[in-house]
Design goal:
The protein is mainly alpha-helical. It has helices at residues 28-34, 40-53, 61-80, and strands at 2-5, 11-14. The protein has one domain (2-80).
């Protein structure tokens, strides 16, 4: 499970329930919007690390795909906001 601080100081978890199926693609932008801009890079790195650790697990493939889509959204937001990668 990946955890990071949100804009309002609460924790953002992904996934909320590791046993649950990955979230729908249309809900992923809402997750990225909750993350504090100063934490986007760290959140993306943790998502990549989690996907890498589980790269050989067939059952983890759908969740890994969702993690990598979140990483892409994090990078897009960093670029849009003029943050540094």
């Amino acid at each position: 499970m990946t955890q990071i601080s949100s804009k309002d100081g609460h924790a953002v978890y992904f996934p909320l329930d590791p046993a649950a199926p990955p979230p729908a693609d249309d809900t992923l932008p809402a997750i990225v919007e909750k993350v504090d801009p100063d934490q986007l890079h760290r959140f993306a790195r943790r998502l990549v690390d989690a996907a890498q650790r589980r790269r050989y697990e067939r059952t983890a493939a759908p969740m890994n795909l969702a993690r990598l889509k979140l990483v892409r959204l994090c990078i897009d937001r960093l670029i849009a906001e003029g943050g540094s990668l």
